[in-house]
């Protein structure tokens, strides 16, 4: 829930274990303690979607979390995330958007040995959309008070044996029945590809078809629909840019259209009667579903520049449950 | 802990080669399987390593996945 800096500092002083999202200035006023956080001023709250630069969104980790370790992981040491994972628990991570850490995790996480053995949930910190290009996203280590633009904040949570951490995903999208795209390289931008088996320019295709950017590319990874959202068609570079990397050799299709984006999101969330220990939602869902001021979403959290459910996701809501 | 098929069971070869497809209830299982299939397809020499890794993963989550694995044998 949204709290003032003073309210949050009182929780920190009580030794509560927190995840905090907010504007950089507000996060910078928080006391040292057991918390990690990241920058973003967009939130989905019980009162509706909003932009708030004064208050911060606080998620208090529940009593099932027995202990936490907090630190930063550098982008050239991504293996520290699975290697340092708790024996029984989960890792909560925050990556600064548009950083080396963001790019390397997005591309490298799929190939990190052991990554999928312990839940890793988190998000990509961002900035106010008006500040794009002149403000930097940051991740915070509450124990030291450090803010980083190029490292990943990691909270490793140890939970009791009878508790099972479980990650859930709400994704509005399924693969459509249109053309099939396979890219030769993993990356956040692409042109060269195969479309239905024939070599082609994805940039030319996207321009000619005037593709709807609200419908992401979707890969079917052993039955899981994994979205890659469109960022821009870059005519100067003759590339299509994405908010997450397309994976080399994986087949994508553009998502099937939704009758109504907003209704689809509301109904998907309503169908998941969960009480998450942590949750966040994509800022593209916030924007495309026009959630500002809406009161209907029951799963709250920051609206993010990317969601982490082990790997980087786009246009999803991710949550963590601690089941007994 | 439930007993999953041993590493030399042909099921692992069929899973990693993509000959058997299945959506597990566990999200992480699907992601681990997709990773193994993708790597083995791109680098066939790594297929044994992917089988070993996948077996290790499923061993950790034995109780949650054993029934589904047995259904695929």
> Mean of residue pLDDT of chain B?
91
Main sheet characteristics of chain B: none
Helical fraction of chain B: 55-70%
Helix content of chain A: 10-25%
Stretches with pLDDT under 50, minimum 5 residues of chain A: none
Percent of residues in beta strands of chain B: under 5%
- What would you report as the Rg of chain A, rounded to the nearest angstrom? 19 Å
Strand content of chain A: 35-45%
Q: Give the number of DSSP strands of chain A.
A: 27
- SSE class of chain A: alpha+beta
Main sheet of chain A: which strands, in order across?
1-6-2-3-10-11
Cα-to-Cα separation, first versus last residue of chain B: 19 Å
Question: What does it look like?
Answer:
Chain A is an alpha+beta fold and 324 residues long. Chain A is 15% helix and 41% strand. Chain A has helices at 5-13, 24-27, 80-83, 100-108, 202-209, 261-270, 283-288, and strands spanning 2-3, 18-22, 35-39, 42-45, 48-51, 56-60, 65-73, 89-96, 120-125, 139-141, 146-148, 152-159, 164-171, 181-182, 187-190, 192-195, 198-201, 217-221, 224-228, 230-234, 239-246, 251-254, 278-282, 301-304, 307-309, 311-313, 316-323. In chain A, strands 1-6-2-3-10-11 form a six-stranded mixed sheet. In chain A, strand 18 (217-221) and strand 19 (224-228) form a beta hairpin. The mean pLDDT of chain A is 95. Chain B is an all-alpha fold and 73 residues long. Chain B has four helices and no strands. Chain B has helices at 10-17, 27-42, 47-60, 62-72. The mean pLDDT of chain B is 91. The A-B interface holds A 110-111, 113, 116-117, 119, 167-169, 221-224, 247-250, 309-311 and B 21-24, 27-35, 37-39, 41-42, 53, 56-57, 60.
């Amino acid at each position: 829930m949204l709290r003032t800096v003073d309210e949050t500092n009182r929780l920190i002083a009580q030794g509560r274990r927190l995840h905090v999202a907010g504007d950089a200035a507000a996060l910078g006023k928080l006391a040292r303690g057991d918390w990690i956080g990241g920058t973003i001023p967009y939130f989905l709250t019980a009162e509706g979607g909003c932009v708030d630069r004064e208050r911060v969104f606080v998620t208090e980790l529940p009593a099932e979390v027995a202990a936490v370790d907090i630190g930063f992981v550098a982008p050239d040491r991504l293996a520290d995330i699975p290697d340092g994972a708790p024996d029984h628990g989960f890792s909560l991570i925050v990556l600064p958007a548009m950083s080396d850490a963001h790019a390397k995790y997005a591309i490298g996480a799929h190939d990190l040995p052991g990554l999928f053995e312990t839940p890793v949930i988190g998000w990509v910190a961002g900035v106010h959309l008006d500040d794009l290009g002149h403000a930097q996203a940051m991740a915070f280590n509450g124990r030291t008070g450090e803010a980083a633009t190029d490292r990943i904040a990691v909270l490793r949570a140890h939970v009791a044996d009878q508790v099972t951490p479980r990650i859930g995903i709400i994704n509005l999208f399924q693969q459509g029945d249109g053309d099939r795209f396979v890219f030769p390289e993993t990356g956040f931008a692409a042109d060269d590809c195969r479309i239905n088996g024939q070599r082609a320019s994805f940039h030319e295709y996207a321009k000619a078809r005037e593709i709807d950017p609200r419908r992401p590319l979707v890969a079917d990874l052993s039955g899981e629909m994994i979205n890659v959202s469109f960022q821009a068609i870059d005519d100067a570079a003759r590339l299509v840019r994405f908010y997450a990397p397309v994976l080399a050799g994986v087949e994508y299709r553009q998502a099937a259209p939704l009758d109504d984006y907003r209704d689809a999101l509301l109904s998907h969330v309503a169908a998941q009667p969960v009480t998450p220990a942590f949750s966040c939602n994509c800022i593209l869902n916030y924007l495309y579903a026009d959630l500002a001021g809406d009161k209907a979403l029951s799963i709250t959290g920051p609206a993010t520049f990317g969601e982490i459910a082990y790997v980087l996701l786009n246009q999803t809501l991710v949550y963590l449950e601690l089941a007994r | 802990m439930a007993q999953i098929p041993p590493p030399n069971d042909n099921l692992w070869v069929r899973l990693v080669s993509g000959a058997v497809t299945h959506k597990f209830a566990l999200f992480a299982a699907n992601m681990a399987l997709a990773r193994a299939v993708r790597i083995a397809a791109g680098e066939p020499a790594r297929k044994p390593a992917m089988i070993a890794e996948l077996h290790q993963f499923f061993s950790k989550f034995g109780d949650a996945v054993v029934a589904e694995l047995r259904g695929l044998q």
